[in-house]
Amino acid sequence: MNSKYQIAVLAGDYIGPEIMASGLQVLKTVSENTDFDYEISEVPFGGQAIDQTNDPLPDATLETCQNSDAILLAAIGGPKWDGVEKSPESGLLRIRQELGLFTNIRPTIINSTMKSFSPIKITEPIDFVIVRELTSGIYFGQPREKSQTQAIDTMRYSSEEIRRVAKVAFDMAMQRNKHVTLVDKANVLATSKLWREVVIDVAREYPEVKYDTSYVDSAAMKIISKPGQFDVILTENLFGDILSDEAAQITGSLGTIPSMSKGEVSPALYEPIHGSAPDIAGKGIANPLSMIKSVAMMLQYSFGRMDLAKQIMTAVDKSVDKKIVTPDLGGDYSTTKVTEFIVDSIKESR
Ligand code: ATP
Ligand code: MG
User: Fold this and answer.
1) Nearest bound ligand to CA 77?
2) Is 277 among the annotated ligand-binding positions?
3) Which candidate, 321, 322, 330, 248, places its Cα nearest to that of 287?
4) Which of 1, 124, 194, 278 has the CA that lies 20 to 30 A from 212?
5) Looking at residue 2, what is its pLDDT?
6) Is the pLDDT score of 230 beyond 70?
7) What's the Cα-to-Cα distance from 29 to each of 18, 34, 284, 292, rounded to whole Å?
8) Which atom, in ligand 1's list, is nearest to the CA of 19?
9) Which residue out of 69, 153, 171, 241 is catalytically annotated?
10) What EC number(s) does its UniProt record assign (predicted)?
11) 266: confidence class by pLDDT, cuts 50, 70, 90
């Protein structure tokens, strides 16, 4: 039997391969001389896969992902594939569907090291996650129609779709500060009323977790005015899409934020929240922190290696503290130099 963890690696397009190299180097360093044993399979995905096979998600890539314990993705897409029939992004939608990745989780962390980048005044440490339903709601509901004078989108949810993502949120809260806020528009929307009914039921299974609700308009204000009050924000697809970009903005550092998409049984997928940044590709200046933190998130959530994740996060903080950072964070270090610094600090800390 092969007891090594299998990790599927999808480097993707433009800056994708540049930051993936950093992530893998850090993974290798942090697992050296430990019992964390893994094997990677690098497979084509997105634009890179379209060039090779005319398909953003080739069967072989999907199969590798299905047989892995976790998936690391850097970034896909870009102007080279504008207007192709099967876009790189359609590959991403398909992989989510095939693997049943119905939850997307994004952390927003602003500690004393990062607070100088925030466009808002940070008076207390910020550390919350948004747990967003990813495979249902208005982006998928039928009917969807458009004529010259009228258009229809449909927001639809089943109680089962709500329950499974709610459980992810409460499980996450149990590992964190035991507080879940459901964000909805229950004063107007029927779907939101169902969310409230189902989530209160799930909340009863987690008596230790404080549970409250917030309307989405009010939550949008609080993310700016009182972000410290949140621990886990649970919300549906459209609201989560908008709020998670808002939350990313208050960190002031798009190039540093990881994310995780997970389902019930399949391997979880970890990726930076930003795109493939064609404007800076090939210049060696892409910020690798989002990818490196995606590796840390994978170690923590897929493999239960909080110890290794912590080593990475400490080294990342140190690089920001010492201003060993790429131009997007005001430094003049290259992707490679930042990565080398992080690798060296991990080695020194042992
Ligand atoms: P997508 O639609 O794929 O999300 P996008 O149009 O939102 O793409 P991104 O690729 O996310 O754009 O990039 C937005 C801006 O942020 C660009 O100017 C890009 O150069 C910059 N950026 C994104 N990621 C990084 C990074 N890791 N390091 C430095 N700059 C980055
Ligand atoms: Mg974008």
Assistant:
1) 1
2) yes
3) 330
4) 124
5) 55
6) yes
7) 17, 10, 21, 12
8) 27
9) 241
10) 1.1.1.85
11) confident
> Ligand 1: which of 82, 254, 271, 292 to mutate, judged by most atoms within 8 Å of the beta carbon?
254
Query: Has 201 been annotated as catalytic?
Result: no
Residue 117: CA atoms inside 13 Å, Cβ hemisphere, count? 25
Is the backbone of residue 46 left (phi > 0), alpha (psi -120 to 50) or beta? left
User: For residues 325 and 287, is the Cβ–Cβ distance under 8 A?
Assistant: yes
Which ipTM did the prediction report?
0.94
Rounded CA separation 16/159 (Å): 37
DSSP strands (E only) in the chain: 5-12, 38-42, 70-75, 103-110, 126-133, 141-146, 151-154, 179-184, 210-215, 232-235, 258-262, 268-272
Distance in Å, CA 274 to ligand 2 centroid:
6
**pLDDT tens string 185-207:** 999 999 999 999 999 999 999 99
Atom 4 in ligand 1: which residue has the minimum CA distance? 275
In terms of Cβ atoms closer than 10 Å to its own Cβ (0-12, 13-18, 19+), residue 1 is exposed
Please identify which of the residues 139, 167, 222, 344 carries the catalytic annotation: 139
Give the SS3 label for residue 57: coil
Query: Pairing between strand 151-154 and 258-262?
Result: unpaired
Q: Is 94 annotated as a binding residue?
A: no
Neighbours of 15 (CB within 10 A): 31
Is position 126 annotated in a ligand binding site? no
Q: Which atom of ligand 1 is nearest to the CA of 289?
A: 27
Q: Which residues on neighbouring strands pair with residue 129, listed in sequence order?
A: 107, 232
